[in-house]
Amino acid sequence: MHKIDLQKCMSTLDFDTHAFVKAFVNAKNDEERAEILAKTISETRQDSTSIVEKTNTVIDQKFDKAKNQLATKNDLKETELLLKKYIESLKVEMLKWMFGMLAGQLTLIIIILKFFFSGVGGI
Q: What whole-number distance in Å separates Cα of residue 71 and Cα of residue 52?
C-alpha cells in the first residue's frame, strides 16, 4: 500500500504569519481587520482545497494502477472452475494409465503362466 507524504503536501500550504500580523496591526479599524482575516482564511482554504484535490488525484492514480492486479469474486470462481476441470482431466488420465498398466500386467502374467505351464504339460 502506498502512503502519501502528507508532510510534503502540507509544505505547499504556506502561510505568511508575519505579513498577516503586520497587516492586522496596521489596520485602522475593526472592519478592515475583519476583511484581512476573512481574506486570509479564504486564501488558506483555497490552498488546502488544492492540496486535497492533488492528494485525491494521486490516490486515484495509484488505485487505478493497483485495481488491475486485484482479483474479483468472479475471477476466483472462474479460477476454481478451471482448477476443478483440470483435476478431473488428471483423474481421467490417471485412470487410463492405471487400467493400461493393469492390462499390461495381466498380459504379462498370462504369458508367464502359459510359458510355465507349457513346459509342464501344456495348457
A: 29
User: Which residues make Cβ contacts (< 8 Å) with residue 58, sequence separation at least 6?
Assistant: 4
Model confidence, pTM: 0.39
Contact 40, 20 (CB under 8 A): yes
Q: Are residues 54 and 14 in the same domain?
A: yes
* SS3 label, residue 85: helix
- Whether residues 37 and 95 share a domain: the answer is no
Residues above pLDDT 70, as percent of the chain? 81
Number of domains the chain contains:
2
| Boundaries of domain holding 108 | 71-123
Residues 54 and 76 in one domain: no
95-119 pLDDT tens trace: 999 999 999 999 999 999 988 888 6
